[in-house]
Amino acid sequence: MASPDAAPPSMTRPESKDDSKHDEKDLGIEPVTTIEMGRSDEYTEEDYKKLTRKIDRYLIPTMFFMYGIQQTDKTSISIQALFGMNTELGLHGQQYQWLTTIFYITYLVGEFPSTWLLQRYNLGRVLTAYMVAICLLCISACNNWAQLMALRALQGFFECNISPGFLLITGAWYRTSEHAQRSLFWQSSQGFFTITCNLILYGIARHAVAKGDIAAWRTISLFLGGLTLVGSIFCYFVLGMPQNVPWLTETEKRMAIARVSQNQIGEETANKAWNWDHVWESFKDPQVYFGFFNTFLACIPNGGITTFSSLLYVTFGFDTWQSMLWGLPRNGE
Predict the structure, then answer these.
(1) What is the DSSP-derived secondary structure letter of residue 42?
(2) What's the pLDDT at 331?
(3) Which of 36, 63, 285, 33 is nearest to 174 (CA)?
(4) Which residue of 61, 139, 243, 293 has the fewest CB atoms within a 10 Å radius of its CB?
(5) Taking the model in full, what pTM does it have?
(6) pLDDT at position 19, please?
């Protein structure tokens, strides 16, 4: 019988000869590593429950905050337009509409490289790099439509991996029966943060208009960008795969992987081998089509409402402040 003081087995895979040829750690983002997986029968259900509570304390609040603030970031363009952005930058014709269109074009283009990075390198580091919010901070310094278009394009590209990244985290940390509850919780932050942040932005805009030192729409960009930047720092230390995060002990890392072994994702949480059989199998699953059409049909009206609702209230005769407040209830849906 092994001594209790014996050193635990190595938690990483042996380094191969090929690994010495190129050390990805020099890039600042380590490749995905594996960890020796514990057997599910090594631990009791009470051990799993205790670990799950700890996982929830770290992951759920972080994902709730970052998902909510990222959603607020991309829809803040309508609030900024309400406070004079279009007039100050001289937008005319379809230029404002293009600010939303270009966001989703680059969002789509960036999906493939971003999801590849999420699987190839340290998940927490990649998500942090994508959420730094430099683009949103720079929007506050824009002086014309071309600059704004370029930054909105970059913003769409860098926000495209938040949802897939968080879904990947949920799948790696939780059992299949727990996915829906956790995913719905952090996704519900969209409405919560839109209401909360809009009330805060209302106060910030009031102060900016009263002082007159800087345009209200610029202060909105600075506030949201700064808030996202602070949140991304927390993500650096909290988010990641079970074998990578610093807030679990080595034993807890083994237990976390053993706990979700029934998901049949295997020890290697990021399988790099492409298998066309899996692709064809997914196309035979009706849930794929239900999910696609549900998302597609929901996004069409959502994009128009979030972009033009604030300006629409103005056309009905409400002033800027009233238009902002009247838009709050719809976010509680």
Answers:
(1) G
(2) 67
(3) 63
(4) 293
(5) 0.79
(6) 46
